[in-house]
Amino acid sequence: MMIKKRVLLSDVATLAGLSKATVSRYMNNSIVLPQETITRIETAIAQLDYRGNSLARRLSKGGSETLGLVLPDITNPFFAELADAAEEAAFEHGYSLVLCITRNNPEKESQFIRWLDTCQVDGLLFTTNRPDNGLLRKEIQRHQRIVLLDEDIPGSQAPKVFADNVQGGMMATQQLIAAGHRHIAFIGGPDELMSVRERYQGFCTALAQAGLHCPAEWVMYGDYQREFGQQALRQLFSHDRRPTAVFAASDFLVLGLLDGLRELGLHAPQDLSLVGFDDASYANFTQPRISTIRQPARELGRTAVSLMLRLLSGEENVPAEIRLPVTWIGRDSIQSR
Q1: Which fold has domain 66-163+297-324?
Q2: Range(s) of the chain covered by CATH 3.40.50.2300
């Protein structure tokens, strides 16, 4: 079987009657050429079916036809579902989607934002779940082609797509109260994050409406990690006065709470009722299955792409913020009192 020879940039240059350097600079959009010369290069590309640097070709036409999706953690099922929907929506509109995983590293976050300076992507869909010290806001403020989703960066003016965290916190707490619980703790992520503050706000509102109060030692903040949930459970159960239920600001934290219960030889919901937030894919397969607030991960991803396309088209009336409704998902992790 004959193997087709790969067409090189030098082949394009030879057919066009130009130097390789001239063709390379044209492909990288770093030279201004007469229209006749441009036509020779594009004709050579077409005749040879040159595909050696499709990104450069797209850049030469004024854009990369690529969106970047910046995520802190692709192993979290919530972010994986969001990414899948964003890629689907981008593809439907002729765009590729590049995943940019930061692991909450500030240098990586800044690096991906600077991709906009080099036109490696046309726009960035940006998610972080670490508190900002102001540096990230400054980076974002330099650009007009960023959409924030899931978590706010205070002071930034980029369009934003969030879930209704306050409503979710209220719904979760109201379900526990309706089940007869009067001693309810709150376990959150970092207290500087918008999502955590808003979910706690909903928690407090529901308690106040029911004439209830949560002791300060039953409110704990830490990383959005399973390990912190386990640590929080140990701390809660180290006191003589214990809650009968916990509202956790993420399903990941609920996994840690379940770990902590098992460590003590206890079980949910018999010894502690639990409610999470996100409705991650595993929530329906744990023991017990997790009652939770469903965040619309797929709709977040698709809505963010839609906003970005409106930005790229030059639309003036792009919404500053969109809030998507959440849904109560009742399962087995609550026991009535």
Answers
A1: Rossmann fold (3.40.50)
A2: 66-163+297-324, 165-296
Predicted confidence at residue 328, as pLDDT, reads: 98
pLDDT along the chain (337 residues), means of 10: 65 91 78 88 87 50 77 89 95 92 92 86 93 91 93 94 98 98 97 96 98 97 94 95 97 97 97 96 95 96 96 90 98 96
Helix (H/G/I), strand (E/B), else coil: 175: helix
What region, left, alpha or beta, does residue 241 occupy, with left being phi > 0 and alpha being psi -120 to 50 degrees? beta
Residues in Cβ contact with 28 at an 8 Å cutoff, skipping those fewer than 6 apart: 56, 59, 60
DSSP character string of 66-128: EEEEEES-SSSHHHHHHHHHHHHHHHHTT-EEEEEE-TT-HHHHHHHHHTTTTTSSSEEEE--
CATH 1.10.260 domain position(s) in the chain: 9-60
d(CA 91, CA 81): 16
Class of the domain covering 165-296? alpha beta
Q: Which residues in the chain belong to E strands, given as ranges?
A: 66-71, 96-101, 123-126, 146-149, 160-163, 184-188, 219-221, 245-248, 273-278, 291-294, 321-324, 327-329
Sole residue written with tokens 């959440």: 326
Is residue 236 within 8 Å of 207, Cβ to Cβ? no
The CA distances from residue 113 to 5, 80, 118, 146, in Å, are 37, 21, 10, 8
The CATH label, of 1.10.260, 1.10.405, 2.40.160, 1.10.287, for the domain at 9-60 is 1.10.260
Residue 2: predicted pLDDT: 45
In DSSP terms, which residues pair with 184 in a beta bridge?
245
Task: Spell out where 152-244 has E strands.
Answer: 160-163, 184-188, 219-221
